[in-house]
Amino acid sequence: MKDLADFAVKKAISLGASYADARADHSIGNGVSLKNDIPESSGFADSKGIGIRVLVNGASGFSSINKLDKKKIEEVVKKLIKSVKYSSKLIKKPIEFSTEVKEKYKYFIKPKIDSESISLAEKIKNLLEINSALKEVKGFKSSYISQNDSYIESYFVNSENIKISSKIPFIGIYYVLTLREKGKSSQIYKQLGETKGYDAFHKWDLTKLAIGETKEMLKNLKTGIKTPKKKMDVVVSPDIVGIMVHESVGHPYEADRILGREAAQAGESFVNTDMIGSRIGSKIVDVVDNPVIPGSAGFYKYDDEGVKARKKYLIKKGIINELLHNRETAAKLDVKSNGSARAVGFSFEPIVRMSNTYMLPKDHTKDELIEGVKQGIYFKSYMEWNIDDKRMNQKYTGNIAYLIKNGRLTKPVRNPVIEIKTTELYNAVDAVGKDLGFMAGTCGKGEPMQGIPVSMGGPHIRLKDIRVH
Amino acid sequence: MEIYKAQDYVLKRLKKLGVDDVVISATTDESNQIKYVNNEIATTKRWISDGISVFAAIGKKNSMTNIRAESKSQIDKTLNKLVKIVKNNPENKEYMGIAKGPFKYKKVNGLYDKKIKNLNSDGVDIIKDSLNKALDIGASRSSGVFDTEISSGRLLTSNGVDADIKDSFISFSIRSFIDGNASSHKISVATTLRRFDPIGAAKNAASTAVKACNPKNINAGKYDVLFDPLAFSNILERVAWASSISYVEAGFSFLANKLNKKVANTNFTMYDQGNLDYGLASSSFDGEGTPTQKTTIIDKGIFKTYLHNYSTANRYNTKSTGNAGLVSPNPTNIILKPGKASIDGLLKKIKKGLYITNVWYTRFQNYSTGEFSTIPRDAIFYIENGKIKHAVKGIRITESMLNILNNISGIGKESQTILGWEVETPCECPPVLVRKVNITKPKET
């Protein structure tokens, strides 16, 4: 595989490319899913392929093939160079890449328990155990549980002699539970993922997690009261802080989005380059994107352009501090790449992505946050959310939620809604907890769509005087 | 090994290994994409791939995998692993087997156009002409993608199915922007070059964007909403998926327990048609070889049938609707039966309302009740007494699917074919007028 990637890069340069890179992948993976107590599907996959990216006459091009055949790869490179040359007719300003450190690096993550060593039958059995426990809970109606794992060996090489080899495991699970009580229904969605082996599955203790959420949600269905519709103080959990910072900090700080490269579908941004250094939130708000957390869903040490990954402060003390860059956006804005280029596999071009995006914890306990609220709402989990394509107008609908009165949690409340502008949201943060929690997600962007594993999180935080309905 | 030969080998080998049901699907695919941003080409992409997927069942135990047809020994290794896994897996009590062929298939017209294969670099010129048209009309900048795809495939099963397909696809998506916060998104998508109209999409995107300049805020509340086909397809697609019996069983459908009940206004009739001529998801056979058909899912507001494959149909004592998906039945081409009104006629019916041309980020609070919200984007217009008053910004639709379907008060006569980033299942959709749609928004600060 490595020889073929090296060959593709050399061939592209010899045919007139000013830059070329190649990524060769060998991926093995497994998946099982359960619909109630029926093992609905199971399967395994083993795939290989190469993706090649070039710059020719200032224009960019990408091609991939899933046959590891030298002749075919040569053909692919030739055709790619020819079509990119033709495309360069419709280029006004040549595309350039930022200058980066030339690295050679290998990293292989060895899982404690290789997911491949666990049979699909055992993986199904483990999901069945979760469902059997849920069936014991009165009010539980149905479940859909899906678990997947992979182990991907990857080799990146470019014409600047950057060479990165990696082997990274991944395990993920999601479930959707449907509950019914007194003629009303609710659903719970949960997604977890880590760059680990099957040991992560055991650590998650999903039965306990699912049962706990189910019982709490059923209590909400039974005794939940209508949400008071007014301005209140609100405490939100790490899950909700996570989705907030992913949607309204991470995405709008993607430099390619700001420069318009995703305008057609994933959208643009309310942030522009002149806003770096300006205030967006209260002084206690720090938001980072950090790929180098071992075991995290968005983990990597080098990005898919061979640039060393690092922690990035997107918001520092409430000020817009840094954008997410790949080499193309970095060159355009005259900075260095901060290692944010990711592709979901060999058949996709690397684009600017988040990794693990979270608000940094500060100094309060969760109880202290709640104690400071006279009348308000605690949002513990959510289901529905969305945001406009400039990342300003967002909505989060609570699932498990409680009324706070005189500093204490009281009755459950049904589906409270935060519908708020980004500028108002981060300025409303008046206290930040000292805990830190993460959830996994699959972030969508690009054409064709690239669903990439990320995590998002933060501590519990308090929002002062925001409208809830 | 050549993939169709590999397919024959896989069937023979799995039968020898004692597998009862085998479905082997082989495809070869060549796709091209040109992505353009702010009137320039951002990148040119090309994908070459082939692949074989295999489903195997012994009794009620089953599993699936892909085959890399590198060599016989590689295939043998994969098949031995597959059979071991199938034997080791627990039984799926609901599995009732695969469709019993062989079948006779009727030809579906207009699925392949060799002119698309021979386009080569013409895409660059198509983009250039379309962008110039948008600029002429007044768009300051446009971004989008131009895609082509040629694929062929063959389905082989242990129940006598041996069927093949060859198809082509061409698509142009354009979002035109005008400084001053206005944009509009249009697409043209087809299986043949003759039905493809990128210039028309560009004209339409630019001229709608021009009208959408200087958007204003409106109050939250109930509004009559006229949805353009691109916007309503986001809803239509979700109605179709909710009619897959697997979605119902998993708790993902608001159409559970609705068979033969009223789920929409009487003016609403919706089909799934896998054998639609020129259909983007058309094929004369489904994923297990059953001939495809036209299925009426909702007839004059009454929910008539779930979508089934052979196995699910057997469990429900009915016939397959030709929508396999071996694991889960899936919709093919979704058709909303057009009404008689022109778009102007529908606008005239609105006293106080909105004309929404696109939505995105549709998310459910509860799939089983159909409560959701979605965000209108691009051109949105406020309508008073049948006339466009001004463009609108910053709103959200917070509704339930059944409310929307029951409040449809008018359907346009002209359908458009919609497929793209947000709508992943092809829809033939006319404009739709819905009464009393709930509009929410953040409070202005």
Into which percent range does the helicity of residues of chain A fall? 10-25%
DSSP E strands of chain A, number: 24
Indicate the proportion of strand residues of chain B. 35-45%
Based on CA inertia axes, which overall geometry of chain A fits?
Answer: globular
Amino- and carboxy-terminal Cα gap of chain A = 56 Å
Q: Oligomeric status of the shown chains?
A: heterodimer
The termini of chain B sit apart by: 65 Å
Q: Average the pLDDT over all residues of chain B and give the rounded result.
A: 97
> What is the SS-derived class of chain B?
alpha+beta
Using only C-alpha atoms, the radius of gyration of chain B works out to 24 Å
Sheet/helix structural class of chain A: alpha+beta
Q: Flag low-confidence runs of chain B.
A: none
User: Beta-strand level of the residues of chain A, as a percent range?
Assistant: 35-45%
Total of helices of chain A: 10
Share in helix of chain B: 10-25%
Major sheet details of chain B: 9 strands, mixed
Provide the residue-averaged pLDDT of chain A.
Answer: 97
Largest sheet of chain A: 7 strands, mixed
Q: How many helical elements of chain B?
A: 10
| Pair of chains with the largest interface and how many residues each contributes | A-B, 86 and 83 residues
Global morphology of chain B: globular
